[in-house]
Design a protein that fits this description.
Blueprint: E1 7-13, H1 16-28, E2 33-36, E3 42-44, E4 49-56, E5 61-65, E6 71-77, H2 82-91, E7 116-117, E8 120-121, E9 126-133, E10 138-143, E11 164-174, H3 184-192, H4 200-214, E12 223-226, E13 232-233, H5 235-244, E14 251-252, E15 258-259, H6 262-271, E16 275-276, E17 281-284, E18 287-293, H7 299-317, E19 326-328
Helix pairs in contact: 3-4, 6-7
The structure holds NADP nicotinamide-adenine-dinucleotide phosphate.
Length: about 325
């Protein structure tokens, strides 16, 4: 978002040893350590951070195939750029993360909010991750079933926020072509482009094109991607809303509740292609879920704009939108 104050200390780490050393330094100097990856899904308070920011630059990519040649265990350094990893696995004909193409940020950040898109999520392919445990002061291996994964959530952003510094991931990917049905937006892309044979590469290309057509490039336009999570609402509340808004889009989930696109709520509340003179913030013309910093000077401006949107959605629909990127520290 290109907002917020300064960090008192910052170090880049490229190995597990360097992580341990940085933590030791922070403890000795009595300042809190805080690890970040690419910085794409976080924004900082105007007060800044009176501690040590540890930027994860741990690299590594190892692909081990089972004797059957179908199942591959791919071990990745947490500081790798996520989309480069997706591109590499897809180039090897591996399926499992192709729909997670073009998501900004590092590999190590993906389990924190259980990154998901177009029908795939990291929880489905993660075998285990490696992390430095600030409580135990040692490295630990955490299997996927101990990550408390939920919809865009995990223990790393809830009960164990600030406890683990993720250094590596192992994913289980399959050398096999993906099969229909695909997520609706991907299906629509295939039918529009008359694509009838599906490979991980074809799915990646579809997702890259869909995302590029509606999302701003964070290198050029300051943004955090989707600023709000898509709300999951109980069935009775969906039915009440449908009485007033019969054309409201929603998707039933496994529990019978409904997911409503936050973008639709924001648009209906009057914030489509919106440019706020007061705060210098706006919504991206082709995706109102993405808040962009047009000429805001402070994080307070972003928070004020966020409040305008959440208040308007609350007043119109009785739904409280929940912020997705993390405000630090
Ligand atoms: P979108 O595809 O129109 O999705 C909006 C909402 O409708 C989401 O809750 C999505 O569920 C649901 N939805 C759409 N098609 C669906 C289908 N065929 N089956 C079930 N649910 C469906 O809007 P978008 O905001 O541009 O997002 C595109 C994809 O990127 C979505 O999968 C979204 O979740 C994902 N995304 C993820 C993150 C993240 O991990 N932090 C951030 C931004 C966007 P799902 O969310 O379950 O897909």
């Amino acid at each position: 978002m290109r907002l917020g104050g300064k960090a008192k200390y910052l170090v880049e780490v490229d190995s597990k040893e360097a992580v341990e050393e940085a933590v030791k330094w922070a403890i000795e100097h009595k300042v809190p350590p805080l690890m970040i990856g690419g910085g794409s899904n976080i924004f900082w308070r105007d007060e800044g951070f009176d501690g040590l920011v540890i930027v994860n630059r741990i690299k590594g990519f190892e692909d081990k195939a089972d004797p059957d040649g179908v199942t591959h265990l791919v071990t990745i350094g947490a500081g790798e750029e996520w989309d480069k990893i997706v591109a590499k696995t897809v180039a090897s004909g591996l399926s499992g993360v192709e729909a997670l193409s073009l998501i900004p940020g590092t590999a190590g950040a993906t389990p924190v909010q259980n990154v998901g898109a177009y029908g795939q999520e990291i929880a489905n392919v993660l075998v285990h991750l490696e992390a430095y445990d600030l409580h135990a002061r040692s490295f630990v291996t955490i299997p996927a079933n101990e990550c408390a994964f939920g919809y865009r959530s995990s223990r790393f952003k809830t009960t164990d926020r600030d406890r683990f510094l993720i250094t590596g991931l192992t994913l289980k990917l399959i050398k096999k072509n993906p099969e229909p049905p695909f997520y609706r937006a991907v299906e629509e892309y295939f039918s529009e482009h008359k694509i009838k044979s599906f490979t991980p590469f074809v799915v990646r290309k579809a997702v890259v094109n869909i995302r590029s057509s509606k999302l701003p490039d964070p290198r050029k336009v300051a943004n955090n991607g989707s600023f709000f999570a898509n709300p999951v609402i109980e069935k009775y509340a969906i039915d009440l809303l449908l009485a007033d808004y019969p054309h409201m889009p929603y998707w039933p989930d496994e529990a019978g509740n409904g997911k409503i696109p936050a973008a639709w709520l924001i648009e209906q509340a009057g914030f489509k292609d919106f440019h706020d003179k007061e705060t210098g913030m706006g919504t991206w013309p082709t995706q109102p879920l993405v808040l962009v910093n047009e000429k805001a000077a402070k994080t307070a401006d972003l928070l004020a704009f966020k409040q305008k949107i959440t208040d308007a959605v609350q007043a119109k629909f009785g739904i409280t939108l929940v912020q997705e990127p993390e405000l630090l520290p």
